[in-house]
Design brief:
The complex is a heterodimer.
Chain A: H1 2-7, H2 9-37, H3 43-48, E1 56-57, E2 63-68, E3 71-74, H4 78-83, H5 85-88, H6 99-102, H7 104-108, E4 128-129, H8 134-144, E5 149-155, E6 161-167, H9 194-197, H10 207-217, H11 219-224, E7 226-229, E8 232-235, E9 238-241, E10 247-250, H12 251-257, H13 260-281, E11 289-290, E12 293-294, H14 307-314, H15 324-335, E13 339-341, E14 366-368, H16 372-386, E15 399-406, E16 415-422, E17 429-435, H17 441-444, H18 446-458
Parallel strand pairs in A: 1-4
Antiparallel strand pairs in A: 1-2, 2-3, 5-6, 5-17, 7-10, 8-9, 11-12, 13-14, 15-16, 16-17
Chain B: H1 2-33, E1 42-46, E2 51-55, E3 59-63, E4 70-71, E5 82-87, E6 90-95, E7 102-104, E8 107-108, E9 113-115, E10 120-123, E11 126-132, H2 147-188, H3 200-227, H4 234-251, H5 256-279, H6 283-307, E12 318-320, E13 323-325, H7 327-339, H8 343-348, H9 353-368, H10 372-390, H11 393-413, H12 415-422, H13 436-448, H14 471-479, H15 481-501, H16 508-532, H17 550-566
Parallel strand pairs in B: 3-4
Antiparallel strand pairs in B: 1-2, 1-11, 3-5, 5-6, 6-9, 7-8, 7-10, 10-11, 12-13
Helix pairs in contact in B: 1-2, 1-15, 2-3, 2-4, 3-4, 3-5, 4-5, 4-17, 5-17, 6-7, 6-9, 7-10, 7-16, 7-17, 9-10, 10-11, 10-16, 11-12, 13-14, 14-15, 15-16, 15-17, 16-17
Classes of the chains: A alpha+beta, B alpha+beta.
């Protein structure tokens, strides 16, 4: 019998492993419960989903979404509803980065202790305040017209995102019934917030990265060295083409004229390693962290590039892809003496639940992309570009910018880009505009940016 | 007006976890109280060594080996020389293949022989005189005060109270179910009035299952106390607590027929519980019965394989007219029966080959039925049982490596199982495919939080196998994670009970059987809880006591009988 007692330890071991498994499950539960609960197929949600959730406000305290009498009501202006669709989100959690998805636990008042079915009078639901200005979004949407594209504006000193619009978009109040079938492919990427969750061929706006790399590695040549542009150049049996015939040209003029030959040659001079190092310092190939989630990463890879490919990559073609919000942080860093402030969509002061986060511009929220010196030199060149006569629309404000026309291949028209910032103490705003398959950046993207900057500087 | 209902319901939802904790705590406390002070039964006076040897257990191995219960440190004594055990009729000594033999009053014994006080036992060069326990010299530190006598009165009241608390817990579940129905009325009606709170029809529906369980529990209680004259009721109380909770959760939405089957199964289970205890009381009969039961179980499995049709992917059901049963559940009980053995048999027949063969046969049958979860349960039962019998770690290592090879082969030849392994810890990425059940289980588990959404208000029960293979999550969703954990902890408590009995029981037969049964219950709960919540990559076993399924409920009560039998107070002394 002594043996029986001794051997029954096997049962004790089994019970102990059961207890430890239980502890593991409880730990997993307490950290992930909210993630588990909010799934589109959860019938507790679809039956009384947003019947009783908190409000979402924009920066001017305009209500973007609220729940009244068991119904979710959105802003009465259909254009505002469409403009902030990707930001506010729908009720079926189709947009993963939307507020109604990311902050649903706060909006619902859910916590893993009480579960999902707490009586409404006991639930502690919170409102969410955004930095975004819905009027600015509405303007951006109307300027984009029917084009697919994306517009974002942000304060490069504080990181507050003022405007974030992505098209195609939907009116949450009148959602079409045939989205799920998507017969005519009308609804491709309709649930995608392109500012956060997509990346595109950058074209000439990438030349800013090449310029930064040049100043970092060969600052002397950057100011003095010139190349001969004859509209095209043959590198190892591959042709590098340029839209113009610029003759003898250096970096400063090259950026202004957006000359491919100059930037391509600089890229080749710098070589793969220097380009890769700069790109990595500028956070390529990794996501940018925002308070509503991470962006899709920008892509830069020269691992099997030949010399011509390096040149093409230096002028924003080859395999390069950029995420619009990431690109916005790059121009933001140029404006902000080399330090990129990470974008913030949620207002910090007004809501209690985010107060524990570190205050503005703490180290976590800022990344030094490059040195102050390099940033200022590139800034000067961008400013020189903006002062060019063709950008007369920007002459009223002290702007720095770079346009881009990115070839996307096939029969499609190129993507039109413009990105830049205001040198304005009152309005330290960086902007990026993308109009997909629209044509030249100067013709299609620049007018939109000009309208928005006018609006931003108007309101005081 | 409706707010009154909401507030009341919320209050009930808070009370349920509270009471579930009290129930688990009370049973745990009585488990601790049960640990009595050891008292010797008789004593042996060693003439040669001039020492008094207390005999502590009902079955004692005597030998030179250090692990013997009575150690005779003498080279003329074999390592396992004899077994001294107590049966209904008195004390018996049995020679377990010793070299020099056992002599009672200077006569060599050939078969187990009954001995009396003042008989002289000779083992090797040792002569032992059988004495009453009173003749012991108490200065040795043996306390003969029987603590059970002192505390029995108090414990009796505790059990009464415990059952009342369990009844109240069940009443709260029914009340919650009623509130859920009121809520449903409110959803359909725009103007909710005071009279809507009282819906006699619904009240009746919610109260009837509760009243039936109340009745069953008290009838059971009084039969145990008055007819069987047993002092303790904790194990039965846990069984009632678990089964009743399962039935009431099922009753909150399911059809009447389902509940009827479940209640009838509970009654059959309790009857089986009582009769099994009676059957295994006589240890001499058991050895004959064991072979019969093993043969019967084998035939039952073969029958199952022959006539079963595929049902939900596995072939473990047989349908006899309107009744469907799951043979593997009953074979679990038979398996425990055939695995356990008394100490004198253990000492004489040391090899396990018969039992290994039977286990391998059972596990193979389950593989053919594609019931891999149950196969795992049988495997663990085999491990526990063989370890309890032989104490050899080598057997365990060998069996485990055999199981690993088996697992590897399964993964290679049964791709759909490998598929389940591949989504392990990634169920949400496959929430429409292989991870369907697990992702739903986790989502609704989280929806319930710690206090639950209310009995009958859950959504997981409508998912396939929601009230059988996913029952833990369903209970946690509706009654809250605290109740879910309490319920599974009380199953673990049963296993701890069986371990605490393992030394004091009347025969190794009971200790092996109860540890195996306890192991089956805990391991099956492990598989169920961790399989459905994606901690382990396996699903498809029921939660003991709680899941929907008559066969499972009956067999679980059968297993409980082994644990109850191992308590030495179960069989009252003459």
């Amino acid at each position: 019998m002594k043996n029986s007692r001794k051997r029954s330890i096997i049962l004790l071991l089994l019970v102990l492993s059961f207890f430890s498994g239980m502890i593991f499950l409880i730990t997993k539960f307490s950290t992930n419960a909210e993630k588990w609960a909010f799934k589109p197929y959860n019938l507790h949600l679809s039956l009384n989903s947003f019947a009783d959730a908190g409000r979402i406000y924009d920066t001017n305290s305009t209500v973007l979404a609220e729940s009244i009498d068991g119904k979710r009501i959105y802003n009465e202006d259909s254009q505002i509803r469409k403009a902030v669709f990707h930001l506010v989100g729908d009720e079926s959690f189709n947009i993963s980065t939307s507020i109604q998805n990311k902050f649903r636990d706060k909006l619902f008042g859910y916590n893993f202790l009480s579960g999902i079915d707490l009586p409404s009078f006991l639930r502690k639901k919170s409102d969410v305040y955004l930095n975004v200005d819905s009027k600015l979004c509405k303007l951006a949407l109307s300027e984009l017209k029917d084009h697919k594209g994306a517009v974002a504006l942000y304060n490069y000193k504080t990181g507050e995102v003022l405007c974030m619009v992505s098209t195609p978009t939907l009116d949450i109040k009148n959602l079409p019934n045939d989205i799920s079938s998507n017969k005519n492919k009308d609804y491709d990427a309709v649930f995608l917030n392109k500012i956060l969750s997509a990346n595109f061929v950058p074209g000439s706006i990438f030349k800013l990265v090449t310029a930064i790399c040049t100043f970092e590695n060969i600052p002397k040549e950057a100011l003095e060295k010139t190349f001969e542009c004859k509209g095209k150049e043959i590198v190892e049996n591959e042709k590098i083409t340029c839209a113009g015939y610029h003759g003898k040209i250096g970096l400063k003029e090259g950026l202004k004229e957006s000359c491919n030959i100059v930037l391509g040659n600089f890229a080749m001079t710098l070589g793969k390693n220097n380009m890769i190092r700069t790109a990595e310092k500028l956070c390529f190939n990794k996501p940018i962290k925002t308070d509503i989630g991470e962006t899709k990463e920008s892509y830069f890879n020269l691992s099997d590039a030949n010399k011509a490919s390096v040149a093409w990559s230096g002028i924003g073609q080859y395999k390069n892809l950029v995420n619009p919000l990431h690109m916005l942080t790059i121009v933001g860093a140029i404006a902000n003496e080399g330090v990129a402030v990470m974008p913030k969509i949620i207002k910090e002061n007004k809501n209690n639940f985010l107060n524990h986060r570190k205050s503005k511009n703490s180290e976590e929220n800022c990344i030094r992309y490059t040195t102050k010196d390099v940033a200022n030199k590139v800034k000067e060149m961008m400013s020189y570009t903006a002062k060019s006569s063709i950008f007369y629309k920007f002459h009223n404000f002290n702007t720095c910018l770079k346009t881009g026309t990115a070839e996307v291949g096939g029969e499609k028209k190129p993507h039109a880009w413009v990105t830049g910032f205001l040198q304005n103490e009152k309005h330290p705003v960086a902007f990026i505009v993308l109009v997909e398959n629209a044509g030249s950046g100067f013709e299609e993207a620049v007018p939109i940016a000009a309208k928005l900057l006018k609006e931003v500087t108007k309101e005081t | 007006m409706y707010y009154v209902v909401e507030t009341l319901m919320f209050f009930v939802r808070l009370l349920l976890p509270f009471f579930s904790i009290i129930i688990v705590y009370t049973t745990f406390k009585s488990l601790k109280n049960n640990q009595r002070i050891k008292t010797p039964l008789i004593s042996l006076k060693n003439k040669t060594a001039k020492k008094q040897i207390p005999v502590m257990f009902w079955e004692n191995s005597i030998g030179r080996s250090r692990s013997s219960d009575i150690v005779l440190n003498d080279p003329t004594v074999s390592r396992d020389h004899a077994v001294l055990f107590r049966r209904e009729k008195g004390w018996i000594i049995s020679d377990t293949n010793s070299k020099s033999g056992v002599y009672v009053n200077e006569e060599k014994i050939k078969k187990p022989t009954q001995i009396y006080i003042d008989d002289i036992l000779t083992l090797g060069s040792n002569s032992l005189i059988v004495k009453k326990k009173d003749s012991l010299n108490f200065d040795d530190g043996f306390d003969i005060l029987s603590s059970s006598e002192i505390t029995s009165n108090k414990r009796h009241i505790n059990q009464f109270l415990l059952l009342l608390i369990i009844n109240f817990f069940h009443f709260l579940i029914s009340l919650e179910t009623y509130f859920t129905h009121i809520r449903e009325v409110k959803k359909e009606k725009s103007n909710f009035e005071f009279k809507d709170i009282f819906d006699l029809d619904k009240m009746f529906n919610c109260l009837v299952p509760f009243l039936i369980i109340l009745m069953i529990s008290w009838v059971f209680f009084f039969i145990t106390k008055i007819v069987f004259k047993r002092k303790n009721f904790e194990l039965e109380a846990i069984g009632i607590f678990l089964s009743g909770t399962g039935i009431l959760i099922l009753a909150s939405q399911n059809k009447v027929e389902v509940i009827q089957i479940q209640i009838v199964s509970l009654i059959i289970g309790i009857v089986l519980f009582c009769s099994l205890i009676k059957i295994i009381k006589n240890l001499e009969k058991i050895s004959k019965l064991r072979l019969l039961i093993t043969i019967f179980a084998t035939l039952f499995f073969i029958l199952n394989l022959l006539i079963a049709k595929e049902h939900n992917g596995s072939k473990n059901w047989i349908f006899i007219g309107p009744i469907s049963i799951q043979p593997s559940e009953f074979i679990k009980v038979a398996f425990v029966f055939s695995g356990a053995s008394t100490l004198d048999k253990l000492q004489t027949t040391k090899n396990l080959s018969g039992f290994i063969l039977f286990s391998a046969f059972c596990i193979c049958c389950l593989f053919f039925m594609k019931d891999f979860g149950t196969a795992c349960v049988f495997f663990v039962a085999f491990l526990i049982c063989s370890f309890m019998r032989s104490g050899s770690i080598r057997t365990i290592i060998l069996s485990c490596s055999a199981a690993l090879i088996g697992m590897f082969l399964i993964l290679k030849f049964k791709p759909y199982i490998a598929e389940r392994f591949s989504v392990w810890q990634h169920v949400f990425e496959n929430s429409q495919g292989v991870g369907y059940q697990q992702s739903r289980a986790l989502t609704y588990l989280a929806s319930g939080g710690l206090i639950g959404v209310g009995s009958g208000n859950g959504k997981l029960r409508y998912i396939f196998a929601g009230t059988s293979d996913l029952m833990f999550s369903t209970i946690s969703e509706e009654l809250g994670l605290i109740v879910g954990i309490s319920v599974t902890f009380s199953i673990a408590l049963i296993a701890l009970f069986s371990r605490s009995y393992s030394e004091r029981c009347r025969s190794t037969f009971y200790s092996i059987a109860s540890c195996t049964a306890g192991g089956i219950l805990v391991f099956q709960s492990c598989l169920h809880v961790f399989g459905s919540t994606d901690v382990l990559p396996l699903t498809g076993v029921t939660l003991p006591f709680l899941s929907l399924g008559g066969s499972s409920l009956v067999s679980v009560w059968g297993l409980l009988a082994f644990i109850k039998a191992s308590d030495d107070r179960t069989y009252s002394l003459k």
